Amino acid sequence: QVQLVESGGGLVQPGGSLRLSCAASGSIFSIHTMAWYRQAPGKQREWVAVIISGGSTNYADSVKVRFTISKDNAKNTWALQMNSLKPEDTAVYYCNAKIRVASGQYEDYWGQGTQVTVSS
Predict the structure, then answer these.
(1) Residue 42: which region, alpha, beta or left (left: phi > 0; alpha: psi -120 to 50)?
(2) What's the CA gap between 101 and 80, in Å, rounded?
(3) Interval 41-76: pLDDT, tens
């Protein structure tokens, strides 16, 4: 079994910063992609950022320049540094990973979600 645990959400004023972290544990052979998604009230879940095992990154246009995704392969953790936050960034943020488990298959896993609220 694999588990993803997130931390770091909270309330922040517009223009502020937050850092989200996600830790993967369990029967992990390797992690192919590490990503962040978010879901605002009344909206569908949307992709925010991804970092691939080789280190390349990609971002949704709405967060490009403001958000940075990073990872620590040795610890099976990744983070999302969010700067210059806007009220429209308010959402539940989910970490996601495509993980190769002991059987050799790649499986998709999700964290439980952490609330980020940007408000004055």
Answers:
(1) left
(2) 24
(3) 999 999 999 999 989 999 999 999 999 999 998 999
